[in-house]
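Sequence in, structure out.
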Amino acid sequence: MYDLTQFGLRDMSECGLALRQLGKDAHTTEEVSNRIIKYLYENLISKDIKEKSCVLIRMFQTIPYKQLSHELQEYASKLLNNQSVTPNLKCLTLLSTAGEKPEWNLRQKSSGHKAIPLVNKAAIAKIPMISRLIQQLGLDPGQVLEEDPNLLADLEQKMYNVFYVADAFGSPYIPAQKSFVIPFNIKSVIGFGGLLPSGNMFVVLMFLKVKVPRETIDLLKPLALSVKIALLPFDRGKIFSSSQDKDQTVSQNELKYKDRIIEELKSENATLNQLLDVSEKSTLIQSDRLEKAIAEEQKTLEKLQITHAQLLHTEKMSSLGQMVAGVAHEINNPINYIHGNITPAQEYVQDILELLDMYQQEFPHPTPEIKIKIAEIDLNFIKKDLNEIIRSMEIGTERIYEIIKSMRSFSRFEKTEFKQVDVHEAIDSTLMLLESRMKATTSSPKIRLIKEYQELPLVDFYAGQLHQVLMNILSNAIDALDEYNEQRTPEEVRKNPSQIKVCTKILNKEWVVISIADNGLGMAEEVSKKLFDSFFTTKSSGKGTGLGLSISYQIVVEKHGGKLLCYSQPGKGAEFIIQIPIRQKIS
């Protein structure tokens, strides 16, 4: 039993193996076709609705008019209004059928699909499903109508594919919407087929009451080859099981010759099937082993989820550092040009202004036109404002230099060796990057910053990682204050303005301490105990990963042998203490 909504590699192999065996001991194409259609109809089951997946399933094959039974020749001729028919006219012929209605289980009871003459390309175009399938096979309809012997040998080895309509309702490729698709709740339609060595095309069409996912389609393609293998021995042999088959009119010698050819093809086919069976059984064994390994690996992955997430976060930080370093470099170059030209520009402007003053002294009575222009441009204001503009540009470039310096510090992720790091420089550069978040906005007041630094020695640290720790803790402090201010009235904010206090000191000759405290809402003890757990966050969905403090703890404690502590009470803010050894013991 196979569920097309959950069709897997094992299903593909087992179904293909079964289909290839269905030609054994058969005598006609129709007999093999009936076995194939019956097998698929009985074994394609929907586990959800606990019913057969197919409402209707059919197999067609293009067959020359001359090989049709008398009954089918009359049927095809009638469709052509008894016009003259060439012996080699291809007719899309129903070989077998199975479905929910009794009349759908006998090909002879089909009212409109027994044998459809494919007179020309226009006739093919009138059958959207077959037209589409031919297109997906990569064939031109002309090659189906009258095959080219020079191309056929190559084409029949390559051409097989799947026709797929994910949603049958309203599809232009699926006819009889009102009489068939809607009343029988057809959800998906799948067809697969290919070319036989004779140049005839075979097609299996399945009208399904389940929606088949797109990923299943690639697994159905090999089934077309399995069906082809089952049909191969009968490709140039007897087609129909009925006594009215046109082949009954040939001589006994011809029949014996065809039977001998069929037996030889069956023998060759059996050998090929054995090879395929061995290959597929090996595939199934490997698939079972792979599934077992995947299950075991899944358990391991679940245990390593936290480590994986932390590594991923670290990698993102590294990529961010590289990007920041690149941006800093790109900004630095043009700023160098601007800053380097400010002093010469200032000197040039000063020279021009002095020259202008000399002109005014030598010619105190300008012409009327010049007087008008002087008034128009407000010359006195320009002379006064130019120096201020240039000075503001100089201050702006110096500010950009400081930001670039902070960005470069943040982008350093040394992993091979410790560096001697200036703690105060690390704090200041991090605060520089966060300065915009501490300014007053329409939705939040300004956050006051208090710094109390003691003189510190340089400490051994991975510089970029120290910035990462400081960024995480300071960002959390700003977030906490913003969240707290949303709950307070303007009067409450005025009486107790938001502030962050950063202090440093030497604990003893071996340790330095960084304290970062805010006067926000604070937190309960049960919350503060979980702060450094992976994936724990007090922020709303989408605003935090729960990894920042966990990774900070890992950096300070596990990588540098330090301590990271948090002290907090509801309504009294929070204080983070970072204790760092001055020197690292290199083992």
